[in-house]
Amino acid sequence: MKLLVAVKRVVDYNVKVRVKADQSSVETSGVKMSMNPFDEIAVEEAVRLKEKGIAKEVIAVSMGVAQCQDTIRTALAMGADRGILVETDAALEPLSVAKMLKALVEKEGIDLVVMGKQAIDDDMNATGQMLAALLGWPQGTFASKVEISGGVANVTREVDGGLETVALTLPAVITADLRLNEPRYASLPNLMKARNKPIEALKPADLGVDPAPRLTIIKVAEPPPRKTGVKVADVAALVDKLRNEAKVI
To answer: What predicted TM-score, i.e. pTM, was given to this entire model?
Structure first.
């Protein structure tokens, strides 16, 4: 079984995001970038499936600028076998990414796609669902546990009311939630070894996809600062403030 894992290069989760002066987007120049945390979990799950003998090959795919190679190298250091970079300077949207992933799935003969449930930069939570729809494959989103046996993936997923388990006939698409696993550390020796693993370079045109954005960003702005809270003496004072100042009751 061949696995494909999508990994996205995002602003590191420890960095305080700043808006550009022209309010066109967030500042990425000189900012530490890393793999999307949910995608790290997806890579870990794919590597574990390989270690169990369920998968024979794990392919890490990233899309974007040339620096996305670093993100792929991290996935290779974690245990992926090879990488594919679809290089473009376009602002990629979920539908374009899903279309390019579909083309790669068909090109590589993939049996299972694993990716993070969302990226922490835009929080779209759409690419996995769109990919499954384009392929006509079953999907297991927000996965907190994955068990594969006999061509069926049993995916335990987190829903509003608790946990739900769905049985997916492979091939399928699975998106990883936070509690699926704890990603391993990409050590320096493994990062050095990853330099020798192959990364295939493609362009969107090679996959028959036009990545031109369909959405226009009008303005990006920081949320307004929150007002300082106050303490009230009793319930009557609280009700008075809610009624006369906040005007919520």
So the answer is: 0.85
